[in-house]
Design goal:
The complex is a heterodimer of chains A (about 180) and B (about 160).
Chain A: E1 7-9, E2 15-17, H1 24-38, E3 57-62, H2 64-75, H3 84-93, H4 104-108, E4 117-122, H5 126-132, H6 153-162, H7 164-174
Parallel strand pairs in A: 3-4
Antiparallel strand pairs in A: 1-2
Chain B: E1 9-11, E2 14-17, E3 28-32, E4 44-49, E5 59-62, E6 68-85, E7 89-97, E8 104-113, E9 118-123, E10 128-135, E11 138-161
Parallel strand pairs in B: 3-6
Antiparallel strand pairs in B: 1-2, 1-3, 4-5, 4-6, 6-11, 7-10, 7-11, 8-9, 8-11
Classes of the chains: A alpha+beta (about 180), B mainly beta (about 160).
Chain lengths: ~180, ~160
Amino acid sequence: MKNVYKFFQFPNGSVIPLIPKCGLTSTNSAIFKQLIKGGNFNHKLLRPVYKHDNKPALAPIRDAVERFKSAVYQVNKGDQSITVDEILDGLEAGTYRNQHFQSQTDILKGCEGCESVKLYRFPEDFQQMLIDGGLEPLSEHRNKSTDKPELTEEQETRVRALYADDIALRATLDT
Amino acid sequence: MPILRAGPWGNLNSPHEDEADPEESPYSPVNCGRNNWPNQTWGAVATAEDIDIEPFPYSSVVGFNETVTGRTDLGGISFVFCYQATAAFNIEFNWSFSLDAAGLPDLGWDYITIEGNNDSYFETPNNSGTKTIQLPASTFGEFSCFVAIGSPDIEDIEASLS
């Protein structure tokens, strides 16, 4: 199966897979500032690419419930409107497909073949991830979701069931 | 503030270049903000990046509201232009695609001016939308934006500036 996932290229030769709702805007901003500082800016160097070239991967992993809430906010920006329950019903039935709700563990499968994969807690260890990628830490987190929905207890239970693998993965980083 | 005209094409490293073939040139049109020069129509170089299925000509010069279309599984559309402006102005970046499967789209823009102003943005966008980007006054600036998809299936994608 072809790899449909993309990777940011860090200046020290590592890559970061594009995982929605895990600091992509901030990552882009850090790379942009580094490219300008280097004095030889090219728009294309800023863009993610479809291959990792077996380079070491750095990956931010976010709490699945917080990430889900951020994704709900994202898909309701603009003139679109879909409720939490509609999303959950669609995800459970396999009828709602939206890239912002893909599991982090699924996206990480795109790192297969990388020399190594190092995971970081997002947002707690995000700055360290940038530093490990050869970038300078950012003074601010950009594009922060400002109006995320509150979930009912039942909704949160459903989210935890849908993203059980992500929750298990994140738990390995929290211990 | 008077601005000595650059162009007609150029980039940040070389603001005074002749009009060139967009397929081969590293330069793009130098515009007067959102307006036409008396002897040059507003334009941006649009490029079908990585699109090898039903592309429009790989790179071409387009104006406002000129929609660029493509069909691709791994690829996208980018725009780049240079500008000179005595006041800040807005550009709208419009996009649409039909991604309905596993896979990821991405979208971004950036600008740099010769005075040192710069900014960039990136997100995984919804299937359609518009971003309004304010470009600062500058004696010479360069702007680029792109939208792309990665999909198991062939999808339609289109984009325009307005």
